[in-house]
Amino acid sequence: MLKAVILIGGPQKGTRFRPLSLDTPKPLFPIAGLPLIQHHIKACKRLALCKEILIIGSYTTTTMAQFVSDMQIEYSPVIIRYLQEFTPLGTGGGLYHFRDQVRAGNPTAFFLLNGDVCGDFPLEELWAFHEEIPNALVTIMGTEATRQQSIHYGCMVQEPTTNAVTHYVEKPNSYISTLINCGVYVCSLQVFHTMADALQNEKGGFYRNGQGSPPPGYMSFEQDVLAPLAGTNKLYAMQVGNWWSQVKTAGSAIYANRHYLEIQPWLKQKPCQILPYVYIHPSSDVDSTAVIGPNVSIGEGVTVKAGVRIKESIILNNATINEHALVMYSVVGQGASVGEWSRVEGTPSDPDPDKPFAKMDNVPLFNSEGRLNPSITVLGSGVVVPAERIVLNSIVLPHKQLSRSFKNEIIL
């Protein structure tokens, strides 16, 4: 029997995802028609041995209750539960705090997945790889990145014949390796002994360095567990060529949307002209003269009127796109409205197609001159764009009624 643990952080995380995360927790943000972490749950469910999925984070139980209830019904008989941290405990602290729930039923091992990554998770191959190495405590799913981008991730050096990780550094200051950590692991239960030692060392280290005490039980899985395990023949990595990306910004959500749409079943009914790949919720009302796609997700209760053109965008629940409006490289928030003949457009931030293994560049909001970097346009929930206006490369916070056109601005 196997279990899976999905780490989702809390409301104080995912600040780069605002304003989208102001009314929908980032782990529940819909990508290709499903909440982000439902893609993780689907991947775990495909594994016949996986009997229980634990979601750990510091969101309130009430925030997650409806989602967990829906997942429990949809993916029965797999048990799905949410465990709330009393305070943010880092990527290792929450896992260690709920170690008894993970160990209950004596599973052979458990998967550990970060909630802000997305991809075509090859969990069966990862489990088979881990099972073949008797002394492996943790097996990391790794992928190739460019030399310049690798320093923004956990980097590891691998012994080529045994696949053992001999050196691991989280977000190094200088180049170490192009093999990076995908935030997806298989762990043996003995890893909790290593975590107990790490917690003791962590406490001692904080007092010695004069930094005061961290929150009780705080631990970084990457720095406090993986880094010390490197070079002990207990940490291994399986390199995959599958698509993988982080979801840190609105731009990365559009990028993830495209790839999830490609690996999902195709639309059975086409309400209008569709350029693949597209997801349209059955309850939405789409005019037959609209042209939608590629890479578009349309949520529940959305109205798309005559002559509308939408591409490379996510339209959230109950939004309205009025006649002949154009929406490109944008996220339109819940209940937002785009007026007739208006244009809402952003700038794509996809990886460089000319560089093999290139990942998303999560560029900062502002450049060195204090100007807004060109990016996906985001309309927060309830935003109203009047007729015949242009909103270009801008971020509009919720419930704003725009009176003019905007370019490269944040409308607070």
Summarize the structure in words:
The protein has helices at 36-45, 61-74, 90-97, 99-103, 123-131, 191-208, 221-229, 250-263, and strands at residues 2-9, 30-31, 34-35, 50-57, 79-84, 109-114, 117-119, 138-144, 154-158, 165-170, 179-188, 235-239, 244-246, 273-274, 278-280, 285-286, 291-292, 296-298, 303-304, 309-311, 313-315, 320-321, 326-328, 330-332, 337-338, 343-345, 377-379, 384-385, 390-392, 395-396, 406-407, 410-411. β9 (154-158) and β10 (165-170) form a beta hairpin. The chain has 412 residues and is an alpha/beta fold.
Give the tags.
412 residues, alpha/beta, seven-stranded mixed beta sheet
Distance between the termini: 50 Å
List the uncertain runs.
206-210
Q: In this structure, how is the largest beta sheet organized?
A: 7 strands, mixed
* Number of β-strand runs: 32
Outline type: globular
Mean pLDDT, all residues? 89
Approximately how much helix is present in the residues?
10-25%
Percent of residues in beta strands = 25-35%
Query: Structural class given helices, strands, pairing?
Result: alpha/beta
Count, helices: 8
| Strand numbers in spatial order across the main sheet | 5-4-1-6-11-8-12
Rg from Cα = 22 Å
